[in-house]
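User: Reviewer 2 asked us to show a designed sequence for the structure in our supplementary figure. I'm pasting the structure tokens here. Could you produce the per-position amino acids so we can include them in the response letter?
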């Protein structure tokens, strides 16, 4: 009898001869950063309605549906109407995934050249517009940030034929060429203002009167522009942003300056009032004395996507397609720990870590959504499948005929008990 046959025929006898170890669970993210390779899986494409997608975010307000929202710069190729659009992936990354393409009938203004999306903690989301003027006026500067409800009975459903201006919840127009956004709380958002080359805070306060949809009353809007924080937009690229809710630090992809900066959102004070363009709002201010600093100033070409997961900062580089992961546990000493190669240069835009720890990103030119997964437990030869070859590699290690590369230990530990033993071999046998 061969040793493989013996193991397969006697696996449960062997099982009781091994001392049981305490197990622990790892997220997919933990496995990704410890694995010698990762798996890129296409989860969305043009057939789902993706067309020049530039950003993505999970709807954390309604997490039971595992909703991943992707925002398109344009309408889908099968949609002849003008304006940006969204594709919602429900149960994303599962066998029961399904999609919902939507475009508000007034998105030609409110999502004109949509460049970024962010969900807040109240079920609302906002998007930026990478355009000088949202009405298409070549001499105008009427553009900024639009606010929406994620309620699918409202978004792109009410007022589609008037009498009000679609389903938008609110809009403020003081930041042309805005290319990044982050939600603070409720109806407060932070923008990358590409026209003024700075960061701005938008507080919609009460969206329209009585939560009206499609209205035009923006009079309670507050905009704070942090002119001392100088950033540079790159035409056609997003510069995404994220707030670390535990520290109130805003991290920004300063794309044109090839760096990542961070800013204390609780710092700064009003310096003087500004004159709002094209609308009457409650306040528009230039700020000063904000606390900000550069945290990454090397190893980046065109950083565009950014996210925070636990003590890690993730940045995508549009130029080479790399996703760089930094350990930021020590706030003043960032450590680069991994560069994931997507091999998709001049394409990767927004990135986001999902609830399960997998990494998601959109490719704007190829119009695709990708999921980064860790290798399958037991895939010791890197072919993204569990075969007899993997069994032989692990068996050889267990009988001391050869040793596994230490980088593969997390993959060989198929039952996540922090040991490589007969249990892991039996798990692979059960998989075959």
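Assistant: Here is a per-position design you can include in the supplement:
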């Amino acid at each position: 009898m061969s040793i493989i046959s013996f193991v397969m025929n006697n696996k449960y006898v062997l099982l009781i001869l091994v001392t049981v170890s305490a197990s622990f669970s790892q997220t997919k993210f933990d496995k990704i950063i410890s694995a010698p390779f990762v798996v890129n899986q296409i989860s969305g494409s043009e057939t789902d309605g993706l067309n020049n997608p530039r950003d993505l975010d999970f709807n954390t307000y309604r997490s039971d549906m595992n909703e991943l929202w992707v925002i398109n710069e344009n309408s889908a190729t099968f949609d002849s109407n003008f304006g940006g659009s969204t594709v919602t992936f429900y149960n994303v990354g599962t066998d029961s995934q399904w999609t919902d393409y939507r475009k508000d009938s007034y998105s030609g203004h409110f999502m004109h050249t949509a460049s970024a999306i962010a969900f807040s903690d109240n079920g609302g989301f906002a998007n930026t517009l990478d355009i000088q003027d949202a009405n298409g006026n070549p001499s105008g500067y009427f553009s900024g940030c639009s606010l929406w409800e994620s309620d699918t009975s409202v978004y792109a459903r009410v007022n589609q034929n008037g009498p009000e201006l679609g389903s938008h919840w609110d809009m403020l127009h003081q930041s042309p060429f805005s290319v990044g956004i982050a939600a603070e709380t409720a109806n407060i958002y932070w923008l990358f203002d590409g026209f003024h080359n700075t960061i701005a805070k938008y507080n919609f306060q009460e969206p329209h009167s009585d939560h009206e949809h499609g209205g035009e009353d923006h009079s309670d809007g507050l905009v704070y522009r942090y002119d001392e924080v100088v950033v540079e937009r790159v035409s056609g690229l997003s510069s995404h942003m994220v707030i670390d809710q535990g520290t109130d630090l805003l991290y920004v992809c300063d794309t044109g300056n090839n760096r990542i900066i961070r800013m204390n959102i609780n710092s700064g004070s009003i310096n003087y009032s500004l004159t709002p363009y094209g609308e009457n709002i409650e306040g528009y201010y230039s700020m000063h004395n904000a606390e900000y600093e550069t945290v990454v100033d090397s190893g980046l070409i065109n950083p565009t996507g950014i996210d925070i997961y636990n003590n890690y900062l993730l940045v995508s580089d549009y130029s080479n397609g790399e996703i760089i992961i930094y350990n930021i546990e020590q706030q003043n000493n960032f450590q680069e720990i991994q560069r994931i190669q997507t091999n998709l240069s001049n394409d990767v835009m927004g990135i986001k870590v999902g609830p399960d720890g997998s990494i998601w990103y959109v490719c704007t030119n190829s119009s695709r959504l990708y999921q980064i997964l860790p290798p399958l437990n037991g895939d010791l030869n890197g072919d993204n499948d569990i075969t007899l070859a993997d069994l032989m590699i692990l068996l050889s290690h267990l009988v001391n005929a050869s040793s596994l590369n230490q980088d593969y230990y997390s993959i060989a530990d198929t039952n996540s008990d922090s040991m490589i033993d007969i249990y892991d071999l039996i798990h692979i046998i059960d998989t075959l």
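For the response letter, you might also mention the following. Residues 1-24 have pLDDT under 50 and may be disordered. Residues 388-398 form the longest helix (11 residues).
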